Amino acid sequence: MGLRPLTFTALASSLLMLTACNGSAANGAAPAAATPATDQAPLAAAADDVIAGVPFASTAVATFNEPWALAFLPDGSLLVTEKSGVLKHVTLPAGEAREISGVPAVGYGGQGGLGDVVPHPQFAQNGLVYLSYAEDGDGGRGAAVARGRLDTQSGALQDMEVIWRQVPKVSGNGHYAHRIAFGPDGMLWISSGDRQKFDPAQDMGSNMGKLVRLNDDGSVPADNPFVDQGEVASQVWALGLRNPLGIAFDGNGQLWEIEMGPAGGDEFNLIERGGNYGYPIVSNGDHYDGRPIPDHDTRPEFIKPLITWTPVISPSSLIVYSGTLFPEWTGNAFAGGLSGQTLVRIELDGATAREAERFAMGARIRGVQQGPDGALWVIEDGKEGRLIRLAPREG
């Protein structure tokens, strides 16, 4: 399959209002049926595109069928998830991709399917990989996280076990969120969306609309803030979130979160222990049917976002850049934008943040990651989503 040329355009002064929670069909409607996933032949890398006014060169490496997440392994190879339930192992720089067996069955449709992929911090020693996905069960669907050992030689996941589930399972196919991250202390963090059900984000009998903190085996740390309030509440670190699609730690160990708002009001938050971020009681956006939601300023007991976006960018992913290939950006956050078709650079300064720059990408950006050499890697949303390396221009 040939690679489409990568183009950049100047960002318009305003962006279109988000028409649905993920910038596609309303209410998370399922996209057209995916074409069968097949292993890809090596794709010749496109020549670097040097665009005036854009401070990086771009190289398209491979394409995927509805990719959702990417993660680097210690050997410099890459894991990529496809929403239909396929995990691929990609060797670089050639872009050869082969399918990994042993992935759990996923509930595919709407925003549901195979989601995030993250290797254990000690992957080189234990081979553990964590996957998030939509899981079918009594009452509907919910996000789940499973872990297993990846044998890159045989191309198989082994000893897969589910270590966390959203509860309860509900109808619908939206707002799973299910991003995964490991903290500096080795704890496992999972973002859990409200599943478009609103009230569970404030209900401590549900782990929906929350940020969850666990030990790496799925057990509950003894120092979680709500550990004495019941089994489900004991998992929770923060609550009052809507569709948190990006979580990332900075060099100081602070956790940042980015989420899709309703009609307006995408948020960027610094996460506090036991913090309540107010959704659905407050938001800087409104309901899709036009009903207003009180702004954060009206309820000071809830934590306000540091940045809000209206018109929205529909954030999909988040990293904090720690490399030196772009030395002027070390310590900055980068967020992928879906409806905004943008990569957003956010300057972090202690407990404050501000949007610093947008790069118009010409496509919906589903994932962003930092490579071993400090290059930025993005992956596009959709049936022919490209994996693209961003690096400084030569000269």
TrEMBL record:
Among its keywords, does the record have Signal?
yes
What are the boundaries of the signal sequence?
Answer: 1-25
Q: Does the keyword Iron apply?
A: no
Please state every residue range assigned to the domain named Glucose/Sorbosone dehydrogenase: 64-389
Q: Which UniProt keywords apply?
A: Signal
What PANTHER family does the entry give? Answer: ALDOSE SUGAR DEHYDROGENASE YLII, HEDGEHOG-INTERACTING PROTEIN
User: What protein name does the entry list?
Assistant: PQQ-dependent sugar dehydrogenase
